[in-house]
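Field notebook, page 360. I keep forgetting to write these up properly, so this time I am using the form the group agreed on. The chain and the ligand, flavin mononucleotide, are recorded exactly as supplied. Prediction of the bound pose follows.
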Amino acid sequence: MTLETFVNLLDFEAPAQEILTQMVYGYYASGADDEITLYENRAAFARLRLRPRVLRGVATRDMRTTLLGREYAAPVMIAPMALQRMAHPDGELAVTRAAAARGIVNVLSTMSSTSLEDVAAVPNAPLWFQLYVYKDRAVVRDMVQRAEAAGYQALVLTVDTPLLGKREADIRNAFSVPAGIKAANLKDTYLSQIDAAQDDSALARYWREILREGGLTWEDVDWLASITKMPLLLKGILRGDDAALAHAHGAQGVIVSNHGGRQLDTSPAAIDVLEEVVQAVDGKVEVLLDGGVRRGTDVLKALALGAKAVLVGRPILWALAVGGEAGVAHALDILLHEIDLNMALCGCRSLADVTRDLVG
Ligand SMILES: Cc1cc2nc3c(=O)[nH]c(=O)nc-3n(C[C@H](O)[C@H](O)[C@H](O)COP(=O)(O)O)c2cc1C
């Protein structure tokens, strides 16, 4: 199968499922409980309609954007996703190389299977770092300082994961990290040493035993903002009041997200609460969104409703499994092409033209 046969981001999943073990596919694909939120992320985008403007001279289009004071090539990023070497031996390096070649930010997970320094060695890669907080604050401070020293441009604190959501595929498959793959940012802690209990997943135990997420409070946000020069974003905000608190506690951005439907099932689709968040922060922090973004039209809908950028999750893992760096490159090119095409079809020459009235 050649990459040309993949025409949209959805095309990558079925072939990836063939390649991956049931356990890894289940970990990547699943949502929490009944997967209602996972489904809703796509359904909510599908319910929205775009109202195009015509005769606006769209022979050339420009999708560059400015985020937290920096210019980026496109309003799209790669969402932080753990353990990418389970998809392909080149893992995070392949994803970062494909993104960097297109000027796209890769948000590296704390749980990456390649160290943050090795990822930062990819030339000209715009990188952000996603943080989970360990019980030991010294470990956290060290990780933040390492990310800053390695040139990461922003710090993304994930706030929707006090405990891991109930992902039933992982329980049924007794998910454990395959031999030879580790959480590479931690010097001594090998995920693979945590054996799955019969009725549990190894990752769910890791959360309870090693991370401090359940104990995180707004004071930790104050503390994090105080120990880094990187702009801080909170990922996993679904309410306007929490977004306003994020601003009050020193965050410069929020990512409206339900963690791809993997945490609280029946929480709303990110796109359905985006406007509430945008209105609550009133331009004081930048608002991004993830969850179910698969099409150029999804990107335009999110931008019209006030997001500065969107993040794409699972399709990147499927493309990685199918074709390594070339697979991810192809997936990104498909999405960039769709954004460009749909800008033209909506009568937009630049992202400044993507205004609220496009969504009706
Ligand atoms: C396999 C997998 C691993 C993930 N790992 C992380 C992570 O380490 N940190 C984090 O903040 N979010 C993590 N997420 C959530 C994503 O960053 C993102 O919110 C979500 O996948 C977006 O939805 P989408 O997959 O529908 O695009 C993960 C998601 C998946 C599918």
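OBSERVATIONS:
- Residues 27-28, 41, 79-82, 109, 111, 130, 158, 235, 257, 259-260, 262, 290-293, 312-314 surround flavin mononucleotide (CB under 6 Å).
- Strands lie at 65-67, 70-72, 76-78, 105-108, 127-131, 155-158, 232-237, 253-256, 286-290, 309-312.
FOLLOW-UP: compare against the apo run.
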